[in-house]
Amino acid sequence: MPGSAALPPFDGNAYRKRILAAIDARGGPEQSDPFEIYDLPLGGADTLSDGAVAAQIDAVWAFWQKQRDHPKYRGVVTAMLTIHRDIADQMRNRDRRRWLAEKTLAERARRHEQRYAELDAALRRLVERFGGIPEDKLDGLRRFAAAAGVEEAAFDIRVRRHRIVRAERPPPPSTDGVHRQVAADLEELGQLNGTTPAVSLYDLLGLPPGADPRQVRQRRDAMAQRNRELRPDRRRALVDDLLAAVLTLLVDGD
Known about the structure:
By secondary structure, the protein is an all-alpha fold. The protein has three domains: 12-92, no CATH class; 109-165; 177-251, no CATH class. The protein contains eleven helices and two strands, in the order αααααβααβαααα. The protein has helices at 12-25, 34-37, 50-66, 74-91, 94-130, 138-148, 152-160, 177-193, 201-205, 213-228, 234-251; strands spanning 133-134, 164-165. It has a two-stranded parallel ribbon. The chain is globular, with a radius of gyration of 20 Å. The protein starts with 11 loop residues before the first helix and ends with a helix.
């Protein structure tokens, strides 16, 4: 019955961990939808009252205001505040919400297929280059798949289709100054964000190891644009340096 469903009380900490982190990892609200952004169930488009939806939207908006200076999420929060007025007005009306739900369902299906396609493409490139999946690339691939929403079982099935190339011995530690600086910057950035540091530049970008250079550049450029919108501080400087290293090592390099 329309208008009979209810929502649990808004939990800012849970929202940050489940929603904000996921949207940020995918590159921003452009890779999301209004139902995820406001943490509203897709199936509730017709069963939730306009008042319940409006209360949830207002609670999320108020939470964003508190996160505007968050060291990790202020960029994605700023981006969502920018589009808030347009998408919130549509979500507050049941008829528009129902239309958005149908559109969102189709878009989520498309994104779901794209996630698997990106993983399959990454696996294919590694096989073409190394004759199989290098053992030392598995952790990075698994992190990418998890961030993209690919279930672990589905990831394992895809990996088992290919031969695992086992390293006979670990590579010698790099003495290159650029690589050492990248590792140090990733470690410091993780400390500033209060999160586990990215293990590589690919991990920083949310891309699989060996991703296509064109995709790397697109993701790098999007991150650079978001970073420029932030106030100058140590975190912004670190991200600038790391994105410069992306061009040097992943786009222009081999």
